[in-house]
Amino acid sequence: TPLLAAEQYDCAASSSGGWACTPRTVAKALPRPGEVGTPTQGPEAALVTQTEGRALAVRSADFSHLDWVPRDRLTPAQLAETAPYCSGAYIEPIRPGMDDKTPKGEEPTHVASDVTRYDQEREIVTVAGNVVVRQGSMQVEADEASLHQQDNRADLKGNVKVRDNGSLVVGDSATVQLDTGEATMDNAEFVMHRGQTRGSALNAHREESGIIRLKDGTYTRCEPNSNTWTLVGKDVVLNPDEGFGTGKNVTIRVKDVPVFYTPRIRFPIDDRRQSGFLTPTFRSGGNSSGFTVQAPYYFNLAPNYDATLYPTIMTSRGLLLAGEGRYLTKSSEGQMGAAWLEDQNDKRKNQTGYEKTRWMYNWQHIGGLSSRLLAEVDYTDISDPYYFQDLGNSMGTNRPNYLNQRGTLTWRGDTFNARLNVHALQRTAVADITPYDRLPQLTVDGALPFQPGGMQFNYATEYVYFQRSLKNGDFTNRYDQSQPWYDNNIKGLDRADGQRAHLEPSASLPLNWTWGYLKPSLKYAYTQYALSLDNTGKEYMALHNQNYDNSPNRGLPIASLDGGLYFDRDTNWFGKPIRQTLEPRLYYLYVPYNNQKDIPVFDTGENPFSYGTLWRDNRFSSKDRIGDANQMSFGVTSRWIQANGFERQRISLGEIVYFRDRKVQMPGMDYRDRKDAMSTVSPIAFDYLFRFNHEWRLTADLNWDPELKTTRSGSAMFHYQASDNPNKILNLGYRYRNDTVRYDPTTGTWQYSSDYGNCKTNPASCIKDYYKVQQHDMSIIWPIVPQWNAIARWQYDYARNRTLEAFGGFEYDSCCWKLRVINRYWMNYTEYGLNPNLNDRTNNGVFFQIVLKGLGDVMGNRVESFLQQGIEGYTAREEQAH
Amino acid sequence: CGFHLRGTGQGGQFAIKELDLSARNAYGETVRLLREQLEANHVKIHAGAPYELVLVREGQRQRIASYTTSGRGSEYELISELQYELHGKQDLPLTGSTVTARRVYMYDQNNITGSNQQAKQLSDEMRNELVQQTMMRLQQLTPSKLEQLQQKAEEQARIEEQLQEQADRQQNAPQQSPIDLLRQQQK
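Output (structure tokens, whole complex):
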């Protein structure tokens, strides 16, 4: 019978000088509040094996014996650390010596108790009543104890608590070796405060090293009165130093019903990153891989580098071995990955580019952040163009359109930057034309160190060799049919490779005042080409009476005058002082016309019109075309700035007045066919931003053509993410665009139309409005009832009246587990042939994810990645999740 | 309507006269531009200044803003972020924030190099916007505001120190009746 308090003893000074105590006759345990019993568990449960996974309420009904503190009694700091649906937390009390790092046995042992008796002959100290024994960082509490001086052993009885930093073991009786910390306890319950986990065992053994071994032990993250899930194992070992636990012959029980068995398991017991298996994911359907099981293994190698292996078994393909590693140092960061599969599925075997052995590797690196020489690598290679379509780690939405193979060295000087870049592009689809590689590209940009009279002299120089190997002949598609490569449609000068040297000295006189600025500037852009063209191209040019010049050059002056004023006023906004600015700006640009028809286009496109266009000196994205201009841009921006500098609202409005037509166009296009190239004014550009606070914002832009009375492009986006509740996210967006200049691979021409193919000459194979963007995007995560959140997204294409992606489902979250069920419908890109009409397939699938908190981290990559892509703010939400 | 030319009325001028500036990407474009802008506003940049502006993190990510009808990306949204902190005496963080800029670019499957150039041009413009927004935040800081922030930070540091001391005291409380059971140690 455990002895409870000093009044149950009769003590008197003994002949030896110590206290001599004898227990009072019938020492009955006094009833304590906990013994009334709880509704979930009968008062008769006195052994940890009888509680069906709950904590022993017989020890204390409020589970204070496990350091459990209910939510309403947590301090704000503790509350912030507590997961939202937990009704409390295990809080380790501060006690003397808890952070003591001295090895056990080297510190004196402190004993405090109500009564002490010393048996000199046997060298046994018997203590009773609120016994506290401290040895280094360990503290043992009990109702009574016999301390055996000779072998430094303590036998404890009644409400035994053994504490060490971050752990607590409660039991009926215990034997503790005081010089080593070794302890054995009966009917034990334990708590690991850092991981907020608990468990029990009929017999628990604490080794010298602090490792806890449980015979027939249980382990869970659930609250003390809950048995939602429990891990039960023959031999469970917890290692608080390393922060992980292992188990043999383990079953996971849900409400005490076994649902899952594993011979071995390794799991983290605190919030440290741990090596070990991560929660496996299961998927069926979706694509041709069959039933898929992925069991990732995480290697925690050091605080600043780690690695993950992703062995994946696909029933219809085989075993995919994939892995990735990440690293981070003071001046560098990066990651590398690789994957390999001997593919059993040969459905694509007749298709061009098919490989039986499929692989992928990549390396992303930035080095030298703190030095002048910066090195960047971004390199990915794949075995075949279908790799990401078949094996991509998500559902098509974030499949890369191309792969970078780039290495760059940059010297960052005081007045100049010099850069050596080699950049190749690898395609991830058959149905695109071959892009140009830059092998190599050399640039030196800078300013002269002297500024006579405030004049600034800048220079930009570039040398690039653009190369590509155009494909000839046919390829074989999914239906074993031959089709000519799109590259065959590239005609004439467009087939050229070439070297380009560009020199751009400039002089400007920036005049700055607090109230405004004026910057006249004059540039001279000189470009020299050295082209090489294949016979197909030459023949085409000869046939069409085009003159081929293998070394065209172009020299153009670019003159501009940029000026602006700043006006301020202090005003009020919802009762708070705010500063409103008014910033009118003028920009005059003059560039003479130069016929650039004998120059091919390597890296240049025509930028769509926006407010930013007003202030650029070239309407094209790079140097193969320099647009002729004689134009004046007018714009005004007004900002509302809070006292702390936070920009609450911004409105920009502007327009360009053209004094001449824009004759320079992309190859093959004639400005006389484009009304917008001959208009006297540009579209009116409108740009708007409103942020109520950090939680919600509204952005909008509109480019409206007053001459043609049409909207060229526009968008509106509303985003809300509650800062105090991660479960509230709302996104509403609409985008419209119908002004794209793009390269049409079926005709080999530059087009201003939104159709795929040519609907006038070839209506059978054209797709109307294929490139017109007219889509809404709505997504939401919202709590419906406590602990239940709805998750949904709907992306709809009005141009062709169809849903691109729609998913809906729910998430249940509690203190110790989480469930997501989402039904998803989506448009997937799977390449069969060139015509995009054949390449879209609709898919439907149900995704199911269960996370038992405390057993590895939240995984389920496949569910997460479409949520991440689909819902703006989802990543931020997961970062603050518990 | 109350507007006046900046610098002729109240405010508008940079109150900070000297500042130390550092960045993880020590010679990057952002820190270079920011230094240029600060110097243009007559702020002396030197290591001995009482306040230090630290560019903690710069990053760019992109997400698909709209899709082609076969589920490939058609427009991409670029999101650039710059996280900065202002450190005061004793290297105490006084204030800090993250400024963000967003742009959308058109993606042409058949002119990838051209689309990349467009993204690069927008990235440069976004960097200018981030620098401009950071400047707007810095412009609002007056020496008295900075002094307040410094006092607040010191106060906070003091409170934390006291809490730590209190916890230490609790842990190192005198313990009663040490019975030395380890006789080996007595030797």
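The first strand of chain B starts at residue 4 and ends at 5.
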